Amino acid sequence: MKTWSIPLFIIALLIVVTIPESSARRTHLTAEQLDHLQNIQTILTTVLTLTEEGRSTGESIQKTVTQRLREIGYTVTADPKQPHDVAFKVKCEERKTWTGTTPEGGDAELADAPARLWKGPACLFTYLLDGKDLGWRKEIRTSFEDAIAAARTEGKTKSGQYALQQLAKRVEVYDFPVLISAEWGQTQRLLKLLHEPSTHKLRKLKILSVLSDLQSEEALPQLTEIMKDKDL
Asked: Tell me, what's the pLDDT at 21?
């Protein structure tokens, strides 16, 4: 098994250069909204998958999203009739459609922010709190923009299905559970994940980065302690 050796200065660098996205965004939320977000436990997940031929089954991506959220302790349902605290939505398309303007600065400068000029396969992650879109958006994309050409190169006749298969692989590795937990200010959930022996070192680095972004006073002592870990 390959082992990772991450020098302490890389952790410090990640903490210094991270854009304080969650912290900045949360200043615009009401006290009631912040309290609601911090206490989210049950998530309604909705996955929409579209190809140029129309809507496609999103069972694979739905299963992955559900599994990954459950792995960090959330209760997940796909039934809108069931009680839930928040609606988490994933929209995956063979050819991305744009439905809004791109902000300048802040989120727009992040690697996983929605790209205005990208027209290829992409998945957009959003959530609704009490039916309101609070403006959090993350996007993952394939390595290719032309799904038809990419599918043809691989000997595939269905470009839409090929694009969704490649997006499904990205959903499997993209750490949206950590990002959404940070967005909701769930420090304790992130700290628990940080201290679990099974958590990979690279994921620990991501958690350290988002926790520093949150500027949580309760996390500071534990962050200080874990940065002494020689294994990192």
From this structure: 57
**Residue 228 Cα distances to 15, 18, 154, angstroms:** 15, 20, 47
Number of helices followed by number of strands (H, E) in the chain? 10, 7
Report the C-alpha dihedral over residues 148, 152, 158, 161, rounded to 10 degrees: -70
Q: Residue 164 and residue 191: Cα distance in Å, rounded? A: 33
| pLDDT confidence band for 4 (50 / 70 / 90) | very low
pLDDT at 123: 97
- Closest listed residue to residue 129, CA positions, set 39, 58, 14: 39
Label the pairing between strands 54-56 and 42-51: antiparallel
For residue 123, the SS3 value is: strand
The one-character DSSP state at 157 is: S
Helix (H) / strand (E) containing 138: strand 138-141
| Whole-number CA gyration radius for the chain | 18
Query: Which DSSP string do the residues of 185-212 spell out, in sequence order?
Result: T-HHHHHHHHH-TTS-HHHHHHHHHHHH
Joined together, the tokens standing for residue 78 give 């796909």
Residues 185 and 219: their CA atoms lie apart, in Å, by 11
Give the span between the Cα atoms of 93 and 53, in whole angstroms: 11
CB atoms within 10 A of CB 26: 20
Q: Which two tokens stand for residue 73?
A: 């302790």
pLDDT digits (tens, 9 = 90+) for 125-165: 999 999 999 999 999 999 999 999 999 999 999 999 999 99
Amino acid letter for position 134: L
In eight-state DSSP terms, residue 103 is P
